[in-house]
Amino acid sequence: MATRSPSDDPWAGPQLTGRAAKKAAKAEAKAAKTKKTRWYKQIAQVYQMVAKQQPLIWLWLVAIMVGAEAVAVLFGLFVWKGHAGYMAFLAAPVALLACTMVLARRAESSAYAQIEGQPGATASALGTIRRGWTIEQEPVAADPRSMDMVFRVVGRPGIVLIAEGTTGRVKGLLKKERQRVARVAPGVKIHELTVGRGEGQVPLPKLVRKLKRLRPSLNKAALAEVNRRLQSIGGMKLPVPKGVDPFKARPDRRALRGK
């Protein structure tokens, strides 16, 4: 069976050739490239975000710059005499680096302050963990009335159940999830944490640090096996009314016609 060329197709658009085709290819390549944000623009964006939460952040940055330059000049005047200007020049990038680090820390605390106390904030904090942990993005247990949730992460220290809500209310959710996990992964260490500002709870900004400080108890082979077993139980099951199959339900046609 013979095949038609694109020019034989009456529905095909005009084909570009020569210089027009080269220009079109360059335009497409240029449009495909995403414009990267410059580093100084990124710093400016971070500063604006932090300044909304902490208006006096500029005082801290100025104090760091002035303090670093003052120490460098004093060192050049009294210790390495005759090199005050040279020391001030060397201190400038160090002071800039220190300001960037402080700004990054303040930006992190501002981001946590914006989401802390909101439902699902734990998932956002867990999303900052880069590697070494298997994280369930959705809660494995939840109470739709009180919005209490339980998240599950798996790593070298074992299985960690992280509750979000009031300590007294989430005990039942933690107990049920612990029993469910222990059935498929017997002998694996299970940790329980509750996110919050109350007694015995872990503040949201310190959650990731708390996880990283847990002692390892599983090797790589055991960790892979635990993850495989936990996949069999899945996560939270959505409530469906008994006796109703949503895939076989039929609409009331009289109601649709307005009768």
Describe this structure in words.
The protein is an alpha+beta fold and 259 residues long. It has 2 domains: 39-115, no CATH class; 121-233, no CATH class. 51% of the residues lie in helices and 10% in strands. The chain has 9 helices and 5 strands. The chain has helices spanning 19-32, 39-53, 57-79, 84-115, 121-126, 167-184, 207-212, 220-233, 253-257; strands at 133-135, 141-143, 148-155, 158-164, 190-195. Strands 1, 2, 3, 4 and 5 form a 5-stranded mixed beta sheet that branches. Strand 4, helix 6 (167-184) and strand 5 form a beta-alpha-beta unit. Helix 2 packs across helix 4 and helix 3 runs antiparallel to helix 4 (84-115). It is extended. The two termini are 57 Å apart. Residues 9-13 and 238-253 have low confidence and may be disordered.
Short description:
This protein is of the alpha+beta class.
Please report the distance between the alpha carbons of the first and last residues: 57 Å
The fraction of residues in strands falls at 5-15%
Percent of residues in helices: 40-55%
Summarize the helix and strand pattern as letters.
HHHHHEEEEHEHHH
Q: Which short descriptors sum up this protein?
A:
259 residues, alpha+beta, 2 domains, five-stranded mixed beta sheet, extended
Topology, please?
Elements: H1 19-32, H2 39-53, H3 57-79, H4 84-115, H5 121-126, E1 133-135, E2 141-143, E3 148-155, E4 158-164, H6 167-184, E5 190-195, H7 207-212, H8 220-233, H9 253-257
Parallel strand pairs: 4-5
Antiparallel strand pairs: 1-3, 2-3, 3-4
Helix pairs in contact: 2-4, 3-4
